[in-house]
Amino acid sequence: MVERTPTVLALSAALLIPHGIRAQTVSKLEAGSLIASSADGSGVPNSVFRIAPDVLITRPNASLAAAASAWLLGQQWQLVDGSVSGTVTSPTVYGVRTELLGGVSRAFEDQSLGSNQVDVATRVSVPIEQASGVWVGGGVARPWKIATVSAVDLMDGGAWTRIGNATFTTTFTNQRFTKAARTDSSGDVSACVASASGGAGIDGPYGSESGTTGCSHGSSVSDLESSVRWQFSRVELTGTAGYRFGDALDVEPDSRRWATGTATVWVSTRLAIVAGGGRQPADIQRNLPARSFGSLGMQVAYWPSWRDAIPVGPDRVTAVRAFDIRPDNGLERITIRVGSVEQVEVAGNFTDWEPVTLTRHGRDMWDIALPIAPGVYTIDVRVDHGPWFAPPGLPTMRDGFGGQVGKLLIEK
Length: 412
Description:
Shape: globular
Oligomer: single chain
Distance between the termini: 70 Å
Largest sheet: 14 strands, antiparallel, barrel
């Protein structure tokens, strides 16, 4: 599938939505050089120019994300992949919330080989305090235009925690599916194909064999992956490492272990330099091979920090990294550090519990100066119209409504 240059540029421009059209829309456009290689030498050209627009629309209990990637091959643009996904989240009840996730995607290994997929999953997430949480879930992925893999049953679980400016996440994912393949006497893997007579056959290194014996078998592959994301000032670092469990028929040796890393350095509030590289495992659902890659490019963003697209992770109530209050010319200035959000509010008995909106400065600093007399108060914070929660670093107490509030002392 080849797209003309104006089409791709129009798609990119459309995804860079101006401020104010949707109050909680985040978008970015990354452009730069991509170098990749696979063990069999197929797939991604050695070096291409790549553009990758993304857009994310969030609401308190729902989100919608779209992403795409296009390469400049010779004098033509090729749309390599694209996806649209959505999440609906239930209200938190007794500290537990559920999510319904769904998405459609299309990917190309080259101009002659593509795959489509539909995913549906549910997850249950349990936050632990304000700095960690766990989740468990399951679903199904339905790929088509792939000869060797049927529908995939998914089970996953994981945990995350925040320590300082770093967030650590560990996930375990199991994929169960029926694979049309077998191993011959020499140990080579052969895939099932349709024979001339209409039945299933074996397409192997020694030609085709008729018949269906040993052509299909149940497969189970599990991935254990850990990642860390560290953000401080203008620098964001992300690293991932993983290991794949499964028998030799389902897991190629070059997909047993992998590791990737990405560094993002913001040179302004809307422009960043992005560099990354590493090893990616084979995509079993799409029948795409493992590959090594390296990339270097620029990222332009409507809002400079992209929300992580992980299935379940730190909720926005846990995104507040710092809270501070200090005297300022007869007033009390409240300062909150939190990135990747559109609105921050505080409320307390010093405002008669009426929310007041803070002003953003730079990428992640929000503040407001209020007249607060000396005394002891209770206070809560809200991010992007989400649930109210106690600011980090303050003593907490129950508020009588099943939640927590922070205890604030203003000295004379």
